[in-house]
Design a protein that fits this description.
This protein is an all-alpha fold and 137 residues long. It has one domain. 82% of the residues lie in helices and 0% in strands. It contains six helices and no strands. Helix 2 crosses helix 3.
Amino acid sequence: MGRLVAVLGARRIDPLARQAALAIAAGRIGLGASAILATRPALRALGFGDADPAARSLAKLTGGRDVALGLLAIAARDDRGALRTATLVAAAVDASDALTLGVAAAEPATRAAGAVGFASGGAAALAGLWAWRRLGR
């Protein structure tokens, strides 16, 4: 009986890591939906100035990606392995966003957005990696 409890316990999802992964997913869905549905205000809130149609289209594409990644994590919420994979993919995307926006911070026109994006994307990537690691235990 003790061995059965140990085996079942090993498959249990770490509740704190699960909560972190789902909180990141919810934030991602909110940000993505804002980028799709209220593109101009979302871009201003992120520190970007007036955006031309091409920039607004890219923001909407990014928003769709974020909604999809967030929904993937929520769909995987009760499967430790799938949630761990979704969390790692999202953390990789966040790290890529942080690096890209960090480079954008070198340009005067995107300095504010780049700095905010570098900090927020980097924090989301680190939180995602932390959750991914704990979900592996």
